[in-house]
Amino acid sequence: SQKIEQNSEALNIQEGKTATLTCNYTNYSPAYLQWYRQDPGRGPVFLLLIRENEKEKRKERLKVTFDTTLKQSLFHITASQPADSATYLCARYSSASKIIFGSGTRLSIRP
Amino acid sequence: NAGVTQTPKFQVLKTGQSMTLQCAQDMNHNSMYWYRQDPGMGLRLIYYSASEGTTDKGEVPNGYNVSRLNKREFSLRLESAAPSQTSVYFCASTSSDSAYNEQFFGPGTRLTVL
Predict the structure, then answer these.
(1) Contact A8 B58 (CB under 8 A)
(2) Which of A12, A95, A89 is nearest to B42 (CA)?
(3) In A, which residues are within 8 Å of B92 by CB distance?
(4) How many Cβ atoms sit within 10 Å of the Cβ of residue B50?
(5) For site-directed labelling of A87, which of A23, A33, A43, A52 has its Cα 20 to 30 A away?
(6) How far is A39 from chain B (nearest CA, A)?
(7) Residues in contact with A72: Cβ distance below 8 Å, sequence separation at least 6, in sequence order
(8) pLDDT at A46
(9) Each residue of B86-113: pLDDT tens digit?
(10) Between β-strands B4-7 and A19-25, what pairing exists: parallel, antiparallel or unpaired?
């Protein structure tokens, strides 16, 4: 099956450090990957998209990489802040209209 | 712009009862989706509608039906609720004109089936 996997264990980071989250995919080559943020009790919010021909994409303190050889995307938050604490979801399209989400990684930034 | 709205926000049902979850978007999006989210399982697609007048099954359609009433509204119906359907339900929409194909989500409906 075409899976998208994220580390289900929570990630705890000291404020000011860089947080790195991993998204792995198997058995297919997605044209692009998306990253979303989800706060408790709310729906996910889109953050970034990276295409397979892009090695890296940046948005403010966020950086996403896409390694088609390793079948992996890394999501980095630099100079992390407690307000960055949330669950981060990786997603890909399986067809023109359907999207598959990973289970998400919960990130906690401690002051 | 309200974005994506869902009603109700919370619901408690008894096994065997039926109910309809309502979803509406005011962004003129073509595609709409229903997901359920369970602890440790992530978001799983129940049904989606690529455009007005069409609906298709997602990963976990059993026990659910949907109606794309018009371009704005996409409802999810549980005909005979079961405890396994206790979950948080999210509606989402996306525009086929978007360069990012990002999905916009509603606030969710928290459903408990006793």
Answers:
(1) no
(2) A89
(3) 43
(4) 19
(5) A52
(6) 11
(7) A22, A23, A24, A25
(8) 96
(9) 999 999 999 878 888 899 999 999 999 9
(10) unpaired
